[in-house]
Amino acid sequence: MKSSRRSFLGTMTASVASLAARESADGKSRVPTATAETTRPRIHANSAEPPKLRKVYSWWSFIGLPRGGPEWTMEEKFRRAKEAGFEGIEMMVLEPKDEDRVRRLLDETGLFLGSQGHPYSVADFKTFLGQAKRVRAEYIFVHPGNAFMSDDDAVNLVREGYKVAYDLGVPMTLETHRGTVTENAYRAIHLVEQIPQLRLTGDLSHYGIGGEMGSLPAAGLIKRLSPLLDRIDTLQTRITNGEQVQVDVGAGDGKLAQNWVELWAEAIRRWRTQAQPGDWFPFCTELGPPTYSILDLEGKEISDRWEQSLVMKRLMEQAWEKSKTG
Prior knowledge:
Blueprint: H1 5-18, H2 35-39, E1 52-58, H3 74-83, E2 88-91, H4 99-109, E3 112-117, H5 122-134, E4 139-142, H6 151-168, E5 172-175, H7 185-194, E6 200-202, H8 205-210, H9 218-229, E7 232-236, H10 255-274, E8 280-285, H11 305-322
Parallel strand pairs: 1-2, 1-8, 2-3, 3-4, 4-5, 5-6, 6-7, 7-8
Helix pairs in contact: 1-9, 5-6, 9-10, 10-11
């Protein structure tokens, strides 16, 4: 987006304005009414308990941990996540041969699985969703296509993918992610306008950096991303300052981190208005290894990602509590 980063904000403002007819009196956009909303597979515990937060750790974030020592084994990573208070793991099970091992470790630790995939075709959707079904994933989040697909091709691919998800009964979200059909917020808004059943995993840092709005006050972030917040079923915790996609936020009590806590709380607040008894809201600590993480001149990470993941866990709990008010 080299030639359009600054024009992006103006485009976003116009797009948000175009949705004004859907806005309620309090300024919050309404979810489009659709039969799909009542029939879609849900991230759900098959219980009548009140909707609740489920804390998740990203398998990708374990790469290179611990800092300064030999990388933990697969078994150690599962154990560390459980002992730190996480309830699930988000990961892509790359090979069918790994399915039994992953399932065994999930059963041993009591963690649940959020699966992942990068589908470029309907056949890919069938592969990834079929595997999610086999390993008993609670949901799958996907990164479909690429940033250069036409709008029509992107809409058609996602629609066909949802047909597969509905047929298999697998809850599916699209992650807001650069390099995919949700390349930027403008494209993601177009998709949610066209596809009523579309649900999102909000890694909103991609839009914070793409639109140079990572350091905006919470109200500004919410205004620009409002049409997407209604569709978020899961969140990831990476925080951007608008220039770097992932920054260290220290103890998490500074202005930047708290702006993002407010944004996450608003997304969860809107999810609550749609949630049913037994629904889960997975919130994932996802802090990427190099080259997502910033390195010093010697090639070492300047941040302790494991310690920052525990800060992010506390911030997600804070956002959950904030979502109960307002």
